[in-house]
């Protein structure tokens, strides 16, 4: 699966709610999980592979623990708490990292791959990753959250480092 690179316009799209989890959708989930691992990412939103669907896959567990993918369908955050600034990256914006302010803790609700409702409390890296992926589903990339000065620096740097068409990206999430 090819990961779309910023500023592809699909990354700006609003993902639609998933109404039917059929076999085709299960394959999409599996493909996204595989793409996330092969790209060494910790999260991937469906927008990033060109599907405007409310679906994100996440795994922030240490690689040596083996795969522990979390599948979030139609997710929304019900509670935010605290604040934290940490470095972030994105598979759609490879090799660029910048600090982003996020809620430190949150509660997210949604559905798993079997259509079962899930409610998850998260903090630290998982909370950050959930916020990052849910942003993607609303057409927001992490560089949109940088302050104006840093955003100007990003534009300058990105013009130099952005991958050429057809090249596979590498990055962290
Ligand atoms: Ni991302």
Straight-line distance between termini: 15 Å
**β-strand amount:** 25-35%
Strand order of the biggest β-sheet:
1-2-3-6-7
CATH fold-level topology: Peptide Deformylase
- Find the count of extended strands (DSSP E, 2+ residues): 7
Q: Compute the CA-based radius of gyration.
A: 15 Å
Descriptive overview:
The structure is a single chain. The chain is of the alpha+beta class and 173 residues long. It has one domain: Peptide deformylase (Peptide Deformylase), CATH 3.90.45.10. It is 25% helix and 29% strand. It has three helices and seven strands; from the N terminus they run αβββββββαα. The chain has a five-stranded antiparallel sheet with strand order 1-2-3-6-7. It has a two-stranded antiparallel ribbon with strand order 4-5. A hairpin with a 5-residue loop joins strand 6 (105-111) and strand 7. The longest helix has 16 residues, at 23-38. The chain is globular and about 45 Å long. The two termini are 15 Å apart. 33% of the residues are buried. The structure holds nickel (II) ion.
Produce the secondary structure layout.
Blueprint: H1 23-38, E1 43-45, E2 55-58, E3 70-81, E4 84-90, E5 93-102, E6 105-111, E7 117-123, H2 124-137, H3 148-161
Antiparallel strand pairs: 1-2, 2-3, 3-6, 4-5, 6-7
The protein binds nickel (II) ion.
The site of nickel (II) ion has 6 residues, from helix 2.
Summarize, please.
This protein is of the alpha+beta class.
Task: List key phrases describing it.
alpha+beta; Peptide Deformylase; 5-stranded antiparallel sheet; two-stranded antiparallel ribbon; 7 strands; 29% strand; globular
């Amino acid at each position: 699966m090819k990961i779309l690179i910023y500023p592809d316009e699909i990354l700006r799209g609003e993902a639609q709610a998933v109404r039917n989890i059929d076999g085709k959708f299960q394959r999409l989930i599996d493909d996204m999980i595989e793409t996330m691992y092969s790209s060494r990412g910790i999260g991937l939103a469906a927008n990033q592979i060109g599907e405007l669907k409310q679906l994100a896959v996440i795994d922030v567990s240490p690689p040596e623990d083996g795969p522990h993918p979390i599948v979030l369908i139609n997710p929304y955050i019900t509670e935010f708490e605290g604040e934290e600034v940490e470095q972030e990256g994105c598979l759609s914006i490879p090799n660029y990292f910048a600090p982003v302010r996020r809620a430190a803790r949150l509660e997210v609700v949604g559905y798993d791959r079997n259509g079962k409702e899930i409610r998850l409390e998260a903090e630290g890296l998982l909370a950050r990753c959930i916020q990052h992926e849910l942003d993607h589903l609303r057409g927001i990339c992490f560089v949109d959250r940088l302050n104006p000065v840093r955003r100007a620096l990003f534009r300058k740097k990105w013009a130099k480092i952005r991958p050429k068409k057809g090249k596979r990206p590498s990055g962290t999430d």
